[in-house]
Amino acid sequence: MNKLIKNGIVVTASDVQRADVAIENGVVTAVGQNLPDNGAEIVDADGCYVFPGGVDPHTHLDMPFGGTVTIDDFESGTIGFAAGGTTTIVDFCMHEKGKSLQHSLDIWHEKARGKAVIDYGFHMMVGDLRDEILDEIPKLVEEQGVSSFKVFMAYKNNLQAEDKTLFRVLQRAKAAKALVQVHAENGDVIDALVEDALASGNVEPVYHALTRPPEAEGEATARAIELARLAGAPIYIVHVTCREAVEAISRARRRGQPVFGETCEQYLVCDHTDYERPGFEGAKYVMSPPIREKSHQEALWNGLFNGDLMVLGSDQCSFNFKGQKELGKEDFSKIPNGGPTGEERMGILYEYGVVQGRIGLSKFVDLTSTTAAKLFGLFPKKGTIAVGSDADIVIWDPNVERTISAATQYLKCDYSLFEGFKVHGKARDVLLRGEYVFQNNEFVGAPGTGEYVPQKPFEYK
Ligand SMILES: NC(=O)NCCC(=O)O
Ligand SMILES: [Zn+2]
Ligand SMILES: [Zn+2]
């Protein structure tokens, strides 16, 4: 049914204004003052912000990793994302080495179809260098709506690619109008440090962080940027966690190189002491790169503020504490990497960014929605509230005070990284193409209503 959102404050990456939003057939048809209702259902947003639905460009749902599979799939995961205000994700399709990219893409479509409650696109991870694989890159851009390709510089003997692979992917992606994303950590150095730790009998979760130092991230970030410069290609650095990596990105951007940085909310608010929690609790925070010493947070906030970091992704990649994280009870290197972060991506940035005065409302929207939509070929269908855009809209109640807890989250994962955090603000209503997914804080969506959104070729203006 057509809707008219009234009395709210509409926030986009460029404006904050008191306005009504008219929705017909799933798209925004007008934004302005005192719009006529024309028989539409009135949605009262009095006292609330009206944000474009969040776009999370870094998610891993139903992903095999570390000898197990993420506990959240496209159903529970996307319900969790929607609860937090995200209406579009771009999930990483993991290339199975030895098979075609198309083969893996077909599997990822199968995982999502009939399950997702919000819209989704796919990035493609490239795992090997065969000519047939590289030849698929332009085909995926032109025919399959995949215009972002991920290369891992870490996870030795598993996902890690050689520099040559990264360089070739950069060359081919550039020609095909695609964007290359890198997980930038020096996997060889980390492998040596892990060997040393285990040989000394250091098996506790904290050694995950101690064997993946910030220098290993800074070095790989700078190397990836140089390889992109050599290839004349743009590059996107996923999940930046430390001062060294921000500085490498900043240097490149100052000399005019198209380098785009992403961080994730957990790196802004969690710190190294989380690994020192009693017993095996530190395993909950095992992800790569690891959570850093608190002193790195300032560099991340500065990067978000000044534009060196342009996107907030979640890197949602959840494994239960019981039974899954416990796989590494005797050896930290066997703890599956990742955490349940997708549901609170916007909530954490709203509290620690907007409420605590580090960023303004338009910047919040830019970081959680607009720039990701632009970089990954979804804008202006996604990422804004404008005439012709999909009516993916969040009515955000800033007056709510709440305590984050696994007991109340929608994700299936059995813990929250942010347990006990007290925050302001909550997505009250979440609309996907004009239909409620959440209404008055209740899930009212249905699995399968989320649709695949093909990316346009990469272009950044
Ligand atoms: N981040 C993490 O630990 N797990 C997900 C895979 C990745 O993004 O590296
Ligand atoms: Zn990664
Ligand atoms: Zn990731």
From TrEMBL:
Carbamylation allows a single lysine to coordinate two divalent metal cations. Residues 49-415 form the Amidohydrolase-related domain. Coiled coil: none annotated. One of its GO terms (molecular function) is dihydropyrimidinase activity. Signal peptide: none annotated. SUPFAM superfamilies: Composite domain of metallo-dependent hydrolases, Metallo-dependent hydrolases. Its EC number is 3.5.2.2. The keyword Hydrolase applies. InterPro entries: Amidohydro-rel, Hydantoinase/dihydroPyrase, Metal-dep_hydrolase_composite, Metal_Hydrolase, Metallo-dep_Hydrolases_sf. The modification N6-carboxylysine is found at K150. One of its GO terms (cellular component) is cytosol. Keywords: Hydrolase, Metal-binding. Its cofactor is Zn(2+). PANTHER family: COLLAPSIN RESPONSE MEDIATOR PROTEIN, HYDRANTOINASE/DIHYDROPYRIMIDINASE FAMILY MEMBER. Belongs to the metallo-dependent hydrolases superfamily. Hydantoinase/dihydropyrimidinase family. This is Dihydropyrimidinase. It comes from Alicyclobacillus mengziensis. The gene is hydA.
